[in-house]
Structures are given as C-alpha cells and as structure tokens.
Design a protein that fits this description.
6-stranded mixed β-sheet; 2 helices; 7-stranded antiparallel β-sheet; mainly beta
Length: 505
C-alpha cells in the first residue's frame, strides 16, 4: 500500500538555491570585512602601532619597542641609531678603533636579522635644527661602496647610486641633502631627486625650507641665490649673502658693507649701521639694524625710526616688536611706544594661535591675547598648534585650554587615552573618561598618559609607571629628580639627554 501525501512536493529550483548560497557567502564576507575594519579602528584607539627606540642597560645599547619589549638585546658598546621610529631598521656601529678612526656598521631588523648587506657601510644622516636639537632623516640612509656614497630608502631600494664623495644633511632644512662630487656641491632631496646640480663650490639654505631657495657660491668666490629649480634669483656677483630676506628684498655684502637690495639688484639701503639683522614682515616698514651692539629700526629711506637703544629687538607679528633692555623684555610698536611692560625674562609669540607667552624670573608663564591681556597664568608645558590647545600646570594640576582660552576636558583632546590624571586632597590618581576612579589617590605626582599608554607615578621621591589599564608596571624605585622630562615605556624611562631620544633602566 502506498503512503498518501498530504501535499505535493515541489521540485527544487537549483538557480534559486545557488543564488541564496552566494548571497549568504557575500553577507558573511561583508560581516568579516566590517569586523576587521572595526577591530582595526579599535586597535588604533588602543595604541597598537609599534614604535622603536634605542635602549640602554648595563652600559650596553639595544632596542625596545613601544610596548617595552626588548627587540635587540643590549649588547653593543655604541648607541644603536633608530632613524625612523616607525621602521624596524636599526643601525649598529661596532669594531670601533678610536685611535685610527675606523669602525664597521650594519643594519638589523626586528628579528635581529642583518639587512641591506650589499654595502660596505650604512649610516643614518644626522642634522641639527636651529635650537641645536639632533634629528635623523627618516626616509633615506647613507650607504658606501668602493669609497663612494649613495642613498637607499628605508626599504633598502637604491635611490641614489654610490658615486658621491660625501653626502650630508643641508643644515636647517628638513629632507634636503648636500652632495659632493668632483670637488663641487649639489643638492638632492631624501627621495634621491636632484634639486641643484653639482656645480657649486658652496651651498647654504636661504631659509628653513628648500622652497625658499639657496645661497650658492661659484668657483670665482662670488655669491648669488638660486631657487629650488636652479633658476637664478640673484646674480652670482656678491662677496656675501646673509640668510635674511622678505618678499623681494635681500641682504648682501659688497666691499665689506652690508646692503639691502631688491630682487632686480636695485640698492635700497647702504646706510649708517653696523649690520642689518632682519627685514620687517612688511618691508615698507624698514629693517632692524644693529649699531654699537644696540638694536633699532631704520626705514627704507634710511631714516632712523627707532634709535638703536635696545639690547635685543625682534618682530613678533607685523608692526609689534619684542624688545629687551638690560635683562628684561617687553613689547613696543613701530613708534617705540611700550605695549607691554619690560619685566619679563622672555617673551615669545605664536603666530598660529595669535598669542604671547611670557616667562618671569621664577619661570612662571603668562599667556596674553593679541590685546596684551593676561588670560592664563601658570607653567605652560605644551602649546600644540596642530590640535589647538594649551597645556598649563596650575596649582599642581594640568589644565587645558583652546586658543580662545576656553577650558577643555583632557578627554576631549586626547581621545584615545584611557586614563587621565586627577588630584584629590593633595594626592594624585587616575580616572577614566567618565570620571570614574581607576587608580586611587596615593601618589605624590604623576604624568599624563603618553601615546603608548604609559604614565609615570611618583611616590616617596621615586618614580615608577602604570599601563593604560592602571596596572603597576614599575614600582616607584627610580630617582629622576634631575631629569627634564619624565616618560616611561613599560619599566624603561626616558634618558636624561633628550637629544638622544633613548630609554634606559
């Protein structure tokens, strides 16, 4: 007997089945991709990118990462150079003979593997900025073969062949290099592109950017100016050219005397002064000149508008001058009127924020607006142009203000931070972005959480560190009283010489 069917069984539509299967696969792939993107964003917020730093322990040098892990064991007598903290390219110097001035170099990666081995020497290109801070070019490395120098990038690709007698940083200008070949100098950038040919006996930067041009000297000993495309700006006929320019005005030397000239060579000033110090932001207002070790203002017609009675004079914003008499600084205008009393040991002007920062004899700061009104008082520890905030320590607490002098929450500025310094009853602790206490108020001092998630804590005169969750990484055991900056990566603390940018323990 056959089984009866309560309904008819339809046949499968294979095309629809396959379409449904494909749809499910696409949905799953989208979910996986979306999760990956969100996880990546979350990781960025929790500081998972890796940086590398030189490390010093037991009188030896190595490398650590931004999680405090040892990447290269401290086993080298010479400091290991990390030219770009984002790249695992570490330059080691060894077999140093100080008497003969010889040494060997090699490059290692984060696996302690030697890389870029087809060169006799490999070195970072160092430079000093106007404040004499040491830095390294982060894009190019100098390599040597057969006694000649060339360039490779951080991936090891050759960007300039080994055919130069010397390659150095062009001082004062980032990402710009001076090359020497057959006794003549030229300029390249750190991507290997030629800016100036090797035809000059001397080259200097005119300003702090390559786009401002170069002071060059020919084989006859005469100076001129060329732009970044090697086009002539000033004819090569002068005995000297100063790094002073504004618009179409330049300061040159002829027959032992400084002159102010225009781009077309027209002489503007050749007056009664010892030296031209600066051209004012509006050149029609004249120049700052020096006479008998004092400073004043002279118009383009040669008229003295402010007598040389000041011990220092520099323009802040157009028409406003920071002046010094004796040991004290103040502000004056172009008529010599006092705008701010001469009572400070220093004054600086921030153009982007349009504010003045003063420092008194006790190293305390005042922040003044463009009307010279005092808006903030304390110790300014950071003035960040990019994020637009002022960090100032007031009553032993760090506070934050925007450039309108409105107080900001620390959590609104440092959006990826997990902990924020808080003070209660004279003690320091840490709270989360909602104000919940994460680390109890038990410390005598504390630093803000750094970009790697660590913060310094001080107790009984000693410093230690905590991680992004408030867990103790290093019990307070380090005496860092004479250190200018307290900063930790794990249980490693920032070295005393900030120029070297290394961590130790």
């Amino acid at each position: 007997m056959s089984r009866g069917r309560r309904y008819d069984e339809p046949k499968l539509n294979l095309k629809k089945v396959f379409a449904v299967i494909i749809l499910f696969v696409v949905i799953i792939m989208c979910v996986v991709m979306l999760k990956g993107i969100l996880d990546g964003e979350e990781e960025k917020g929790n500081v998972t990118s890796i940086d590398y730093f030189a490390a010093y322990q037991n009188n030896k040098w190595g490398v650590i990462d931004s999680n405090g892990n040892i990447v290269i064991d401290p086993a080298y007598s010479e400091m290991i150079v990390v030219p770009n903290s984002k790249k695992d390219v570490f330059l080691c110097t060894f077999d140093v003979n100080y008497d003969e001035g010889t040494y060997n170099t090699k490059a290692l990666n984060c696996k302690n593997e030697e890389i870029y081995t087809n060169y006799e020497q490999i070195e970072a290109i160092s430079s000093m900025d106007k404040n004499q801070n040491l830095s390294y070019d982060g894009k190019a490395l100098r390599v040597q073969n057969g006694g000649k120098y060339g360039l490779i990038n951080m991936e090891g690709n050759e960007i300039l062949p080994c055919e130069y007698d010397e390659i150095t940083a062009l001082q004062g200008v980032e990402n710009t290099l001076l090359v020497l070949k057959d006794g003549n100098y030229g300029v390249v950038n750190d991507e290997g592109k030629q800016l100036l040919p090797t035809t000059y006996s001397e080259i200097q930067a005119l300003g702090d950017e390559a786009s401002q041009g170069f002071i060059v000297k020919n084989t006859d000993g005469k100076y001129g100016i060329v732009d970044i495309a090697n086009e002539q700006v000033l004819e090569l006929k002068y005995d000297g050219i100063s790094k002073i320019h504004q618009g179409d005005y330049y300061v040159v030397t002829e027959n032992g005397k400084q002159k102010l000239i225009k781009k077309d060579g027209t002489e503007v000033l050749n007056g009664n002064y010892d030296e031209i110090i600066a051209i004012l932001k509006n050149p029609e207002n004249g120049v700052i000149y020096k006479d008998n070790e004092k400073y004043g203002i002279m118009s383009l017609s040669g008229e003295t508008t402010i007598k040389a009675n000041y011990d220092d004079l520099q323009e802040a914003k157009s028409g406003i001058l920071i002046a010094k008499t004796g040991d004290n600084y103040g502000l004056i205008d172009l008529e010599g009127n006092t705008l701010l009393e001469f009572k400070y040991r220093g004054i600086t002007y921030n153009e982007k924020a349009d504010l003045y920062l003063t420092e008194d004899q006790n190293y305390s700061n005042e922040v003044l607006n463009s009307n010279y009104e005092v808006k903030l008082t304390g110790m300014v520890t950071d003035l960040n142009d990019e994020k637009g905030y002022i960090e100032i320590r007031q009553d032993d607490e760090y506070k934050y203000y925007n450039f309108k002098f409105e107080e900001e929450k620390e959590s609104d500025i440092f959006t990826t931070n997990t902990l924020f310094v808080s003070k209660k009853d004279g003690k320091y602790g840490f709270v989360d972005k909602d104000g919940n206490v994460v680390v109890d108020y038990i410390y005598d001092d504390a630093t803000n959480q750094n970009s790697f998630g660590y913060a310094g804590v001080k107790k009984d005169g000693k410093w230690g560190s905590i991680d992004k969750n408030g867990n103790i990484v290093q019990e307070p055991t380090y005496d860092l009283e004479d250190y200018l900056q307290i900063d930790f990566i794990g249980n490693w603390y920032l070295g005393k010489d900030l120029n070297m940018n290394y961590y130790r323990k």
